[in-house]
Amino acid sequence: MASEKIFDNTEIAFELKSDTELERAHFLFKMISIEPLVRIGTAVTNFAIKASLPVEGLIRSTVFDHFCGGVNEEDCLDVIDAMYSKGVSSVLDFSVEGKETESHFDAALETTLKIIRFAAEKEAMPIAVFKPTGFGRFYLYQKKGEGKSFNESEQAEWDRVVARYDAVCKLAKEKDVEILIDAEESWMQDAADELVTDMMRKYNTEQTIVYNTLQMYRHDRMDFLKAQHKLAKKEGFSLGYKIVRGAYMEKENDRALENGYQTPICESKQATDINFNAAAKYILDHLDTISLFAGTHNEESSYLIMDMMAEKGIEKNDNRVWFGQLFGMSDNISFNLAHYGYNVAKYVPFGPVKDVMPYLIRRAEENTSVAGQTGRELALIKREKERRKLK
User: Fold this and answer.
1) Residue 148 and residue 198 in contact, taking contact as beta carbons nearer than 8 Å
2) What is the reported pTM?
3) pLDDT tier at 205, thresholds 50, 70, 90
4) In 273-283, which positions are buried (b, 16+ CB within 10 angstroms) versus exposed (e)?
5) Which residues, other chains included, contact 379 with Cβ-Cβ below 8 Å and sequence gap of 6+?
6) What is the per-residue pLDDT for 33?
7) pLDDT at residue 365 above 90?
């Protein structure tokens, strides 16, 4: 199956897009492909939002509607149902970033719990997600990861972070909804990893509910994966890992340079690819104790995982193997995989327009920096437009 180039089928990829939506996607990716334009657009958008200029309508009808499902959970229902009609599940992602107060953390917790309850009622939503810094201050994770002692109020604050994780994982297990916990910068990740492992130990007893995220552009993640596997086997719980390439490369390299330590990032894109594929292979080799969520927009890695599944006799719809892409991107991978019976979920970001802007800006910047991604999207959209013309 994988030797067939299934990702070139644009009819399946864009079946849900009207001609107008296809034109909008073409326009957006064309804009995103011009780096200076992204920089200027980002600055102008940030200024407009801070100055409360009436730009939300414009943002909503262009970049927001392409990359986001809606402003709240109910608003996303049409998108969720439409994708599920083609076999693609949804992971609702509350994409409000950079908040630092207890009231925001409590609100993020309530939203995540609400999504889990929401997901439990909808077959189209088998998975939920949250970000570590959605539930607690970055500084706390960093301090704990560095092995420094908390003062009394910090300890109480950290206890609340742990309680939020626990509340989410407990409800996820009760409702049989898998929960993905995103990864962030390396200098806060040790504390998050430790906490997620505790949650796996507690809730991944009968089946895999809790998933951590491994950013495979970090050269230490294979060793971490193997060490975790050894621990899980010894203690008798299962592991869940979402593997991704990673999203903070420039930040990571800049900080390493500034502080005079070796960067945790692989030396090249090729080394990252090798690392990602090695992690996928390792997990598929140990599927009895580790479940895989392959978060990738890379066609080669997707074909490779399909090949490995076929070689090992792993059913396409085995719940221990999922593929994931972001909403608004790589529809050629998502919808074609689903068409052939694989488990696929789109990350569907949602939230108030102005609060989701940091997420959208990161998406635009990532698309300009990922070699070939925007060009590939444009080529596929163009091909589909031609195909429709000839119909």
Assistant:
1) no
2) 0.94
3) very high
4) bebbbebbebb
5) none
6) 80
7) no
CA gyration radius, the chain? 20
Q: Is 81 helix (H, G, I), strand (E, B) or coil?
A: helix
CATH code for residues 69-355: 3.20.20.220
Residue 2 has pLDDT above 60, yes or no: no
User: Assign residue 139 a region: left if phi > 0, alpha if psi is -120 to 50, beta otherwise?
Assistant: alpha
**Model confidence over 64-106: pLDDT tens digits?**
899 999 999 999 999 999 999 999 999 999 877 667 899 999 9
Predicted local distance difference test score (pLDDT) of residue 181:
98
Residue that is written with structure tokens 């107008």 in the block: 20
Return the half-sphere exposure (C-beta side, CA atoms, 13 A cut-off) of residue 133.
18
Query: To 5 degrees, how large is the angle CA 348–CA 353–CA 356?
Result: 55
Which single residue is written with the structure tokens 């998108």? 79
Backbone torsion region of residue 277, taken as left when φ is above 0, otherwise alpha when ψ lies between -120 and 50, otherwise beta:
alpha
Please give the structure tokens belonging to residue 17. Answer: 């897009």
Stretch 44-66: mean pLDDT: 78
| Angstrom distance (rounded) from CA 241 to CA 321 | 10
User: Looking at the predicted structure, is the pLDDT value of residue 373 above 70?
Assistant: yes
Residues 273 and 165: their CA atoms lie apart, in Å, by 31
Q: Which helix (H) or strand (E) holds 325?
A: strand 321-326
Short-list 360, 368, 364, 297, CA closest to 68: 360
| Distance in angstroms (rounded) separating the CA atoms of residues 86 and 338 | 7
Other Cβ atoms closer than 10 A to 99: 14
Other CB atoms within 10 Å distance of the CB of residue 241: 27
What pairing do the DSSP bridges indicate for beta strands 127-130 and 239-244? unpaired
